[in-house]
């Protein structure tokens, strides 16, 4: 019987101790929780500069310009830019595009204008019934 008792004591356990793995996972969780907010910082972008060739169009384009302060200017086919508010811009642009379906419409903004203002302007122009909106950039100039 002494040999049977000896075999029972020497029997190996087939269990895994998961406590060290849980510790490692908690440390990784804390590291990711601390570093995740640091990864979403904004990046300064100086726009726009392009070497794109000019657009060949048979009709003069309609240009909607937004400045750094969020003011809108509308230039209708070769006219002078005139200051305009958002509701009047939407109404006039919608009426003009309804009469001239294939007129190109461009959104222009200086490089210092916030990107959100440019995007809001594009949404406003599309809401006025313009099917295709293009962005305008300054030709020439090498990137900085």
TrEMBL record:
Intracellular or extracellular location(s): Cell inner membrane; Cell membrane
Pfam families listed in its UniProt record: ExbD (PF02472)
Membrane-crossing segments per the record: 21-43
Keyword Acetylation attributed: no
Function comment: Part of the Tol-Pal system, which plays a role in outer membrane invagination during cell division and is important for maintaining outer membrane integrity.
Name of the protein in question: Tol-Pal system protein TolR
Subunit structure, interactors included: The Tol-Pal system is composed of five core proteins: the inner membrane proteins TolA, TolQ and TolR, the periplasmic protein TolB and the outer membrane protein Pal. They form a network linking the inner and outer membranes and the peptidoglycan layer.
InterPro entries to which the protein is assigned, alphabetical: ExbD (IPR003400), Tol-Pal_TolR (IPR014168)
Organism encoding this protein: Pseudoxanthomonas daejeonensis
């Amino acid at each position: 019987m002494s040999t049977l008792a000896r075999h029972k004591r020497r029997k190996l356990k087939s269990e895994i101790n998961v406590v060290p793995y849980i510790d490692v996972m908690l440390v990784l969780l804390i590291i990711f929780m601390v570093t995740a907010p640091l990864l979403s910082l904004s990046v300064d972008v100086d726009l726009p500069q392009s070497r794109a060739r000019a657009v060949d169009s048979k009709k003069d384009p309609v240009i909607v310009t937004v400045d750094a302060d969020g003011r809108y200017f509308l230039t209708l086919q070769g006219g002078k830019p005139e200051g305009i508010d958002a509701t009047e811009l939407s109404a006039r642009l919608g009426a003009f595009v309804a009469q001239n379906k294939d007129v190109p419409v461009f959104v222009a903004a200086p490089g210092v204008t916030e990107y959100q203002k440019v995007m809001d302007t594009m949404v406003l122009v599309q809401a006025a019934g313009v099917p295709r909106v293009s962005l305008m950039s300054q030709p020439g100039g090498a990137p900085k």
